[in-house]
């Protein structure tokens, strides 16, 4: 076989993309696979990897750190797959040795979505209405609204959660889940209301995907970099820097949302350079909603990590550590928000 034939053969061999087996994980991995093939011509095959989180029925906040990603990372390091796609908010903030986030594709809308049984919006729900959700962050913020809602912790994939409010045996008045998951499954028609971040601040990195490969595979790093979306990466860097600086444990309701936008021109007239600006909002909320610290900070995208760290420091100065409780010192990067589902 000639060098050219060998190269052509290598290019025709499908790249192995590791993914969880849920419908949502398969859908978002499929989107990444299609985008990579479209940009590079390389075929991609999906390889299902079962994670500890998929095998457990325990509440998300009790499962521990990285339960939805550790098996994928083990398969990657073992060479069983070539790259993996994660819901970015599932990743612990501490990066393991030997792996590299090669791309953050364009982020889906990171806001939370409300789906109700009778089409009522959040403000129309009656006191005592039973609202289901899986994240302590959402539970805490629902309590903080002061609407006397009954909040029920729920787990499961998107379809099983929707069945709790829309199915023939529905037992909830409403559910709150990530809008991004519904969008990737083409189910946005079921959304009653997309929640304003002023009411329900998203989880750090919600709606974003992380495309990960081995750090010692420069060809794969270069290939996957074609999928990277700089504004999405910058926003996630700021949000997760705040999270890592807080050193939040797995039971801490922490929220963050960064927006990258064009600022004012720095020069005069049409020739002035337009400088991008990043606007980061962060919050720490007690599980019962009685204590709620919210702050914001702005800066340039180049300083995204420093903006996140500085906002976390301000939150701590105002007493966030007392809300985070004893888990705050579990170690850097231990926050686990659970699956996007």
TrEMBL record:
NCBIfam families: hemC (TIGR00212). PANTHER family: PORPHOBILINOGEN DEAMINASE (PTHR11557). Its cofactor is dipyrromethane. Tetrapolymerization of the monopyrrole PBG into the hydroxymethylbilane pre-uroporphyrinogen in several discrete steps. Keywords: Porphyrin biosynthesis, Transferase. Residues 235-316 form the Porphobilinogen deaminase C-terminal domain. Monomer. SUPFAM superfamilies: Periplasmic binding protein-like II, Porphobilinogen deaminase (hydroxymethylbilane synthase), C-terminal domain. It is an enzyme of class 2 (transferase). Binds 1 dipyrromethane group covalently. GO terms for biological process: protoporphyrinogen IX biosynthetic process. This is Porphobilinogen deaminase. InterPro entries: HemC, Porphobilin_deaminase_cofac_BS, Porphobilin_deaminase_N, Porphobilinogen_deaminase_C, Porphobilinogen_deaminase_C_sf. GO terms for cellular component: cytoplasm. The porphobilinogen subunits are added to the dipyrromethane group. Its EC number is 2.5.1.61. Belongs to the HMBS family. Residues 15-221 form the Porphobilinogen deaminase N-terminal domain.
């Amino acid at each position: 076989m000639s060098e050219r034939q060998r190269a052509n053969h290598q290019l025709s061999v499908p790249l192995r993309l590791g993914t969880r087996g849920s419908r949502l994980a398969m859908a978002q991995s499929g989107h990444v696979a299609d985008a990579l093939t479209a940009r590079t011509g390389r075929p991609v095959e999906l390889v299902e990897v079962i994670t500890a989180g998929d095998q457990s029925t325990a509440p998300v906040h009790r499962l521990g750190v990285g339960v939805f990603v550790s098996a994928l990372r083990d398969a990657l390091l073992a060479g069983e797959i070539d790259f993996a796609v994660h819901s970015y908010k599932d990743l612990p903030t501490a990066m393991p040795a030997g792996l590299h986030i090669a791309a953050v594709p364009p982020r889906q809308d990171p806001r939370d979505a409300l789906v109700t049984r009778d089409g009522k919006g959040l403000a129309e729900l009656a006191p005592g209405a039973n609202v289901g959700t899986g994240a302590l962050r959402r539970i805490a913020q629902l309590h903080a609204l002061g609407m006397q809602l009954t909040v029920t912790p729920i787990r499961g994939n998107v379809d099983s959660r929707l069945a709790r409010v829309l199915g023939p045996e529905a037992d909830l008045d409403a559910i709150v889940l990530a809008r991004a998951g519904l969008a990737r499954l083409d189910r946005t028609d079921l959304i009653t209301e997309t929640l304003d971040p002023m009411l329900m601040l998203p989880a750090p990195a919600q709606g974003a995907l992380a495309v990960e490969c081995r750090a010692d595979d420069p060809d794969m790093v270069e290939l996957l970099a074609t999928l990277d979306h700089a504004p999405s990466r910058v926003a996630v860097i700021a949000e997760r820097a705040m999270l890592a600086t807080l050193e939040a444990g797995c039971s801490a309701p922490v929220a963050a949302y960064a927006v990258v936008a064009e600022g004012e021109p720095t020069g005069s007239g049409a020739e002035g350079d337009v400088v991008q600006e990043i606007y980061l909002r962060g919050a720490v909320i007690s599980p019962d909603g009685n204590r709620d610290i919210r702050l914001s900070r702005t800066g340039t995208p180049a300083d995204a990590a420093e903006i996140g760290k500085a906002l976390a420091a301000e939150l701590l100065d105002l007493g966030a550590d007392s809300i985070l409780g004893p888990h705050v010192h579990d170690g850097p990067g231990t926050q686990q928000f659970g699956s996007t589902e």
